[in-house]
Design brief:
seven-stranded mixed β-sheet, 194 residues, alpha+beta, 7 strands, elongated, 4 helices
Length: 194
């Protein structure tokens, strides 16, 4: 074997050992390891959300959007939750990343001294927020009238374009017929056949 083959073989052995070690660590930490790495790699954009359950704590990756903590709960089929954050006292540093605690049953933010901030139903609030964001209702009669007039103007302009196209085609056909008749007029006048 050559030197390069031995180096590549040794590198492969170390890669297998590292892969097994990472798999073992991620298996033992039960979902914390990969979420921690994702938050650590984001350089402060993402936040580690520790969700306090009845029998155990589990983790999610969240972010702050306009004073709201938004994260997907891994135990509820990735349902997105949105919690209002009133101040920054609830955030704390752990292992070089920013983290926050949330109670699983009440969806309330927990301070690091284990006091709870009263909250609301975050899943219901997020659903209302998304519905209001994506389906605005037109309630003003003036707006409805403007939309109806715009649709009528659009239909009228499409009709005008269609009629103009048809008249252009008819003009082209008439022009060809007149040219044909004009070419035949001298032979008709001289008494020849058409």
């Amino acid at each position: 074997m050559g030197f390069l083959t031995e180096v590549l073989l040794q590198t492969l052995y170390y890669a297998v050992v590292m892969g097994l070690a990472i798999f073992f660590i991620s298996f033992i930490l039960r979902g914390f390891f990969w979420k921690f790495l994702k938050v650590k790699i984001s350089f402060g954009r993402l936040i580690l959300v520790k969700i306090r359950g009845i029998n155990r704590d589990y983790f999610a990756v969240g972010e702050i959007e306009e004073n709201f903590l938004v994260y997907k709960d891994p135990m509820l089929k990735k349902q997105e939750k949105r919690i209002n954050i009133k101040d920054n006292k609830a955030f704390y540093k752990v292992l070089g990343i920013t983290a926050i605690d949330v109670d699983n049953q009440t969806n309330n933010v927990c301070y690091p001294d284990y006091t709870v901030v009263e909250g609301f139903d975050s899943a219901k609030y997020n659903n209302l927020y998304l519905r209001a964001l994506y389906t605005p209702q037109i309630t003003d009669n003036k707006d409805k009238l403007i939309i109806v007039l715009l649709v009528l103007i659009l239909l009228a302009s499409l009709g005008a374009v269609y009629m103009g196209y048809n008249s252009y085609n008819m003009a082209t056909i008439n022009k060809e017929m007149i040219k044909t008749v004009a070419d035949k007029i001298p032979t008709i006048i001289s008494g020849g056949r058409i």
